[in-house]
Amino acid sequence: MALIASIDGPTRRILLDASTVGASVNPIDIYKEVRTMRRLDENLRKYDTFFTAFGNIAKGGGKFTERYVQCNLGTRIVPFNATQELTITGVIITDDAQEGTACFDRTPLSPTTVVDINYVPPQVEVVRADAELQAINSISFNGGVLIDEIDGIDLMPFPAGNEANPVKTLAFALAISVVNKTRKIFTIGGLTINNGEDISKYTLVGENPSLTTYTFVLGCITDQVKVSKAELTGDANGSFEITKCHLEGLRGVGGVNSETNILDSIIETSGLTLSTNNTQHVHIINCRTGPPDNTFVPIDFNGVGGDITIAAFSGQIEIVNMSNDQNMKIFIDNGRINIAASCTLGNIHIHGDAKVTNSSTNIITSNGRLVDLTTGTRFNNLPTDVWAKQLEGIFSAEDLMRIIAAVASGKVSGFDTLQPIFLATGGTKPRVAATVDNNGNRTAITIDATP
Q1: How far, CA to CA in Å, does 191 sit from each of 94, 169, 186, 215?
Q2: 117: burial class by Cβ within 10 Å (0-12, 13-18, 19+)?
């Protein structure tokens, strides 16, 4: 059930919902709900953090404190405006050393409303064995460290970085991950990876691409990073395994140590650019472009090595800066492909249902070619070159179509002299001139297939 009806940011008052009337409420649950509301409401994020949660702080001898909530900067909880007994079952304090009922404000209630606050914090001391502590620690952190750049805490008391106490910075998260022997980082909201910060071989997990954006700042170190459920933008530098993400102007993809895999993702308007250090294969599998049908998304080779395979793809892409003799294979379900004039050296293989526009002057030379994998035929402009392919002797598909049309539907004369002449359809050009015997067998033939 929802515990909070609304939050009054200017007065720092948390107004409880009608569902709390006569109920037992743990302050930790109020803290969690406030944090969620702040994350989803930009207007609330302009206020300093209302609560901070602590707990499991070592007291020595295997003893630890219970979890508790601290009201920050005058924050107070306002009970629902109805006569009731409200039971508080966990520890709640203020940042000026008060506890319990002092954390509540009943002055906004109606004069006739009586609210008794029954404060019953647990009177226990937690004692845990080492094995139990390890298990609780793993469960508490969900196998990783949690970052919240908006509502996270800017310090590192144990157990900072878990669900109840997300940390505010990547630096804290990396330090905690070393202690907890994990390389997984969960993120609420966005996260910036700054110049010099190294997340190589880490796993980053967002909420979803509409809520989480990972911004990579030029100079960060990102080799062999796994990322899921986020929007990715900025200047990375290394190989990735990307799953269920949106890529919006992600640059610096690819490295020297391992291949890059981009799976089940959407490439947005600003596209994807390879790293200047890339020498490894990049696989883009089961992805699509995000912009409208008339917008081409750039796949930028950046003039460096490393091949690309695109499979199970749909949308509109423009291939640019392919100039280092790479190989590119595209298996496209539906869409359009532009090959930019900046593509000067390499092999592009296309298979599937796509309209191809080739602006590269070198793409069919020995320096580069566009190949239809179904036939092995090299094409520059697909519609023109298919018709120009020689099918019978010196005759192309286009030539044969002219010949067939003339014989099937063109005007004919000369049968009486055993020398029939078939004219081009709609014209006067003799397309086929034959010599036949009395039985109609052709003994000689002259063909003009020119336009």
Answers
A1: 30, 8, 10, 6
A2: middle
